[in-house]
Design goal:
mainly beta; 4-stranded antiparallel sheet; globular
Length: 279
């Protein structure tokens, strides 16, 4: 899984997908901070953000960890290589490091365009997508940024698309062009699952009917959305196989709302669903 948060952090490695066995690697004692986002390169290299403006890095699958400082508290992290990391932040700023987290440089900071950094995803060292909520005065003007060289980030979207409402959980890009975004609007009843095929420049409404708490796509056509009925305390997962035109709904176990979905790499029929009461 890429991202999660707990007050006391437990890191695990999945050692058998078929039998769902997990091995505890490290337990961090209770602190006044909590875990945020995690991203990995392969099985051994992981970086994991903490709310006290720090990151933890392991290069040996969690046997040992080193701590490095962040310029401010991060909401999301994406690794382009073992030295190049990108983060989005609560302030609406976005940063990049090219030396494994020793130093950080701002690559976007404009409070008139972004009041909260929701999402950052690098697909390689040169291409990526970032998203932030609009300024407080016009929150619905969500900001989408795109880079094709890893250095210059350009605003792609100039239409009113709404804001995230739950950071990265309601947003997923499969590549630098194709993505899905469940928007929140200051006007109640305007929440929709949107789709882009041009890196966020334009968005169209899908036929999804419900409230999305987690959005995850395996490719540009096949995706899952976690849904929840508060009246009956029932979890649902809605599935599309044609890019959002048609949907099927499935009940899932657990009475607590789920918000994180992860496909097992290479096996789209195997899915992990994270909820407030378990996995």
């Amino acid at each position: 899984m890429k991202k999660f948060s707990f007050s006391v952090i437990l890191l695990f490695v999945l050692i058998s997908t078929s039998s769902a066995q997990w091995k505890r690697i490290e337990t961090f004692s209770a602190q006044t901070f909590y875990g945020g986002s995690i991203d990995a390169l392969g099985d051994d290299f992981d970086v994991f953000t903490l709310s006290n403006n720090k990151i933890l890095i392991t290069t040996d699958a969690g046997k040992t960890w080193i701590t490095k400082n962040l310029p401010e508290s991060a909401t999301d992290i994406s690794l382009a290589s073992k030295n190049i990391f990108y983060i989005s932040c609560y302030s609406g700023k976005f940063y990049k490091t090219t030396d494994g987290g020793n130093t950080w440089a701002t690559f976007f900071s404009n409070p008139s365009l972004s009041s909260f950094g929701d999402y950052i995803e690098m697909f390689n060292e040169t291409t990526g997508i970032a998203m932030g909520d609009g300024p407080s005065s016009s929150l619905n003007n969500g900001l989408f940024l795109k880079t094709t060289n890893g250095t210059d980030w350009q605003q792609t979207c100039f239409q009113v698309v709404g804001f995230s409402g739950d950071a990265w959980r309601r947003l997923d890009f499969i590549d630098v062009n194709n993505g899905y975004f469940y928007r929140t609007m200051t006007t109640v009843g305007q929440e929709k699952l949107l789709k882009t095929t041009d890196g966020g420049a334009t968005w169209t409404t899908t036929n999804f009917n419900g409230r999305a708490y987690g959005v995850k796509f395996y490719n540009k056509d096949f995706g899952l959305v976690s849904n929840y009925d508060f009246n009956t305390s029932t979890n649902f997962v809605d599935r599309t196989t044609d890019g959002g035109s048609n949907w099927q709904r499935f009940n899932t176990a657990g009475s607590q709302r789920s918000s994180e979905i992860e496909f097992v790499p290479g096996t789209p029929s195997s899915v992990w669903l994270g909820a407030n009461d378990g996995l």
